[in-house]
């Protein structure tokens, strides 16, 4: 999409158009002034068919170039488009002029003025044809890119609508269910005549459902932000992102051994959502494993033109029944967005995530992100 926007441009650039207009105007002045000069000299060349035909064909070519240049200005072509038109214009004029110069060398002319008229005619006609071809080519490219841009916009809008509808359904279901649990337990507690025991299971249930509502809403907001217009990705230190997320796990679960294996800093194009990818994976490893001494190893390496991150744990693995839909969009009956959120954020960075292995001896997730192009 960015490439299309850069080519189509948003602001007119008229330098090339000005050159074309000025050249055509000078040729027109030359073409109209020369017969006046020859008339003053009473030159017989003025009445020859060759000279008359040359003048009569040059004038429309010049007027056509002036019109074409002004038409291009109104279309507000971008710098790249105007440069391409100018290139076709120059190529047409140069090639046709060279071709006719070769003919001049092999054909004798009775007057120097016929020769000058021939050169002017070759240049004007060649430039005119080149301008027509250039404008036609640019119009074809612009039409193609415009159609592609509209297609991408329509596809993006459809994805937004589909995702918003799905998330709306999840929010309604999750929030409504949790709200009903909270309301029901709160009503019972309010109606109780005895003092409320702080260890009452109903209080814990209300607290837990409130946390679930908060988590779901935060996940939906994060997911919707991946399809926002104008979202800007910048060069991000992925190593620091992982260090921060690993430190959070260590602070919350000091009994878990989390090791980061990385020699250097690695960069990718990302934004503030990058941490959510690895926070989700690390949290799942902690919450869904009952191994007494869980170990997690995070490794970052550069392979060719990609940054590869592997997260391995020695837990109990993922149940086989969940593997087929591991990264799919959750249904309304599910809780949370899980690995679907991980997949969507990774995909928004032009990256990929795969489950390399899972079983009784642990689980391995592998992420691949493209290395940012070097700055010019």
TrEMBL record:
Catalytic reactions of this protein: ATP + protein L-histidine = ADP + protein N-phospho-L-histidine
Keyword annotations of the record: ATP-binding, Kinase, Membrane, Nucleotide-binding, Transferase, Transmembrane, Transmembrane helix
TM region(s), chain numbering: 16-39, 51-67, 87-107, 119-142
PROSITE patterns the UniProt entry points to: HIS_KIN
A Pfam family of this chain: HATPase_c
Domain Histidine kinase: 170-373
Gene3D superfamilies: Histidine kinase-like ATPase, C-terminal domain (3.30.565.10)
EC number: 2.7.13.3
One GO molecular-function entry: protein histidine kinase activity
Top class in the EC scheme: transferase
InterPro entries associated with the record: 2C_sensor_his_kinase (IPR050980), HATPase_C_sf (IPR036890), HATPase_dom (IPR003594), His_kinase_dom (IPR005467), Sig_transdc_His_kin-like_C (IPR004358)
Database matches in PANTHER family: SENSOR PROTEIN CREC, SENSOR PROTEIN RSTB
Protein name per the record: histidine kinase
Annotated organism of origin: Halomicrobium mukohataei (strain ATCC 700874 / DSM 12286 / JCM 9738 / NCIMB 13541)
């Amino acid at each position: 999409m960015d490439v299309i926007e850069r080519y189509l441009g948003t602001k007119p650039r008229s330098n090339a158009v000005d050159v074309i207009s000025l050249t055509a105007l000078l040729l027109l002045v030359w073409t109209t002034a020369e017969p006046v000069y020859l008339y003053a000299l009473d030159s017989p060349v003025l009445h020859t068919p060759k000279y008359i035909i040359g003048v009569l064909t040059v004038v429309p070519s010049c007027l056509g170039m002036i019109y074409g240049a002004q038409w291009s200005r109104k279309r507000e072509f971008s710098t790249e488009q105007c440069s391409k038109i100018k290139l076709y214009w120059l190529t047409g004029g140069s090639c046709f002029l060279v071709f006719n110069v070769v003919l001049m060398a092999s054909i004798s002319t009775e007057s120097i003025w016929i020769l000058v008229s021939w050169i002017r005619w070759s240049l004007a006609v060649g430039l005119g044809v080149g301008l027509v071809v250039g404008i036609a080519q640019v119009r074809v490219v612009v039409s193609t890119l415009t159609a592609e841009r509209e297609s991408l916009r329509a596809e993006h809008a459809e994805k937004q609508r589909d995702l918003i509808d799905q998330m709306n359904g999840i929010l309604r279901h999750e929030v409504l269910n949790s709200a009903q649990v909270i309301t029901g337990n709160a009503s019972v507690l309010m109606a109780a005549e005895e003092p409320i025991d702080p260890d009452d299971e109903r209080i814990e249930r209300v607290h837990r459902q409130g946390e679930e509502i908060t988590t779901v809403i935060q996940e939906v907001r994060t997911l919707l932000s991946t399809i926002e217009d104008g979202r800007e990705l910048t060069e991000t230190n992925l190593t620091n992102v992982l260090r921060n997320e690993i430190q959070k796990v260590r602070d919350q679960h000091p009994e878990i051994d989390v090791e980061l294996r990385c020699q250097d800093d690695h960069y990718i194009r990302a934004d503030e959502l990058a941490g959510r990818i690895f926070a989700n994976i690390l949290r799942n490893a902690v919450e869904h494993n009952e191994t007494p001494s869980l170990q997690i190893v995070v490794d970052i390496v550069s392979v060719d033109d990609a940054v590869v991150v592997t997260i391995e744990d020695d837990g109990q693995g993922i149940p086989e029944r969940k593997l087929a839909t591991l990264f799919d969009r959750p249904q309304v009956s599910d809780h949370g967005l899980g690995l679907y959120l991980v997949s969507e954020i990774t995909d928004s960075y032009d990256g990929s995530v795969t489950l390399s292995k899972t079983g009784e001896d642990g689980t391995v997730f592998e992420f691949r992100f493209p290395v940012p192009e070097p700055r010019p």
